[in-house]
Amino acid sequence: MGIEVVVEGLTKSFGRQQVWRDVSLTLPAGEVSVMLGPSGTGKTVFLKSLVGLVRPDRGRVLIDGVDIASCREKQLYRTRRLMGVMFQDGALFGSMSLYDNVAFPLREHTRLGERDVRRIVEEKMAMVGLAGDGPKLPGEISGGMRKRAGLARALVLDPQIILVDEPDSGLDPVRTAYISQLLIDLNAQIDATILIVTHNIQMARTVPDNIGMLFRRNLVTFGPREVLLTSDEPAVAQFLGGRREGPIGMAEEKDDATVELELTGAGGIGDRAGEDRAGGDPARIGDRPGIGDGPGPGDRAGIGDGPGRGARAGGDRAGGDRAGIPPQLTPTPGLPERQAVNRRMDRVMRDLHLLPRAAQAGILAGLTDADRARYGIYRRDAIRAGES
Ligand SMILES: Nc1ncnc2c1ncn2[C@@H]1O[C@H](COP(=O)(O)OP(=O)(O)OP(=O)(O)O)[C@@H](O)[C@H]1O
């Protein structure tokens, strides 16, 4: 099973620029987590600090009892063996074939003979859908294939933690859907702890068990996916809706006066540009297209308010969405079930009372009959939670 990663009070600056401060979270063992955030908010720096490629100014990163933010080189090296990293562009050596790229960590860090190297490389390349592509050079293949080759290389040392930097960047939506499925399939097969850094909303909505978001040098939230997906935090709602109105600006930081204007509807950027907004509603916080669509100014979270259903968080939604929470991807038929699913559900149900009400409603609305029996929850309790 994967290993838990505990981050405590992590702070990082480059010169006078503070990237983020006091970031604390736990990546639960064997679960898939996503870190979201607008461009430039330090997602990649965060990922690198988990591998010890960036040293934070303060804080700890505990992996298997070792604080990799402060440990000695030898321990860092040993702990890194537990981790596989897929960088944005695959980070392949351009002059080596895919086969040699994927074999590289095995030849560098183990004493395996070439026959074993071949067995492992072929197995991992097949896992990411690159069987038979070994002889190709990185320059001869598409960006999606390069990413998958980078993923195969990240897998050869059988990591218990996999860190993935923007797996969707440069990919079309179909390739992004494939790599999303691949990450879930991998988790089902090897039960590793996975952290994906991305700003792809679709991936964030359908892949992870847990989601966090970095914004303005802070971790806005981190927890079960239902928390962020039902959040009424303005930056989160704007980000999920992909809208310009809200606190996130082109230069990451809008000035406060602009935000105030937008939120009061007294003239957002769209108005000044003479653009239409759906429904003519001035910069409503909860107005995420395709998620919250109920009338009324009280609709801040933009959740659970299907027309004619009484505007309730937790109500059923068309297309299988519940309370604005789309179904999570499941492994491809024929693969094992994800072991993380039950572990996560146990944890979430244990801590349910600590979560925001909308998240609770979303979680309860999504329970299967088997879940309800397991946790002793009656259907009417779940419905009542959705109504409150
Ligand atoms: N080695 C470095 N030296 C100085 N500044 C750096 C260094 N690495 C990153 N930064 C700065 O830290 C900030 C965060 O960068 P990072 O690449 O982590 O953002 P990101 O959220 O991953 O962005 P994107 O989504 O666009 O990839 C940026 O302002 C970047 O310029």
From TrEMBL:
Residues 289-313 have a biased composition (Gly residues). The keyword Ligase does not apply. Residues 272-287 have a biased composition (Basic and acidic residues). Pfam families: ABC_tran. Residues 265-337 are annotated as: Disordered. Residues 5-241 form the ABC transporter domain. Transmembrane segments: none annotated. The keyword Lyase does not apply. SMART domains: AAA. Keywords: ATP-binding, Nucleotide-binding, Transport. One of its GO terms (molecular function) is ATP binding. PANTHER family: INTERMEMBRANE PHOSPHOLIPID TRANSPORT SYSTEM ATP-BINDING PROTEIN MLAF, PROTEIN TRIGALACTOSYLDIACYLGLYCEROL 3, CHLOROPLASTIC. This is ABC transporter ATP-binding protein.
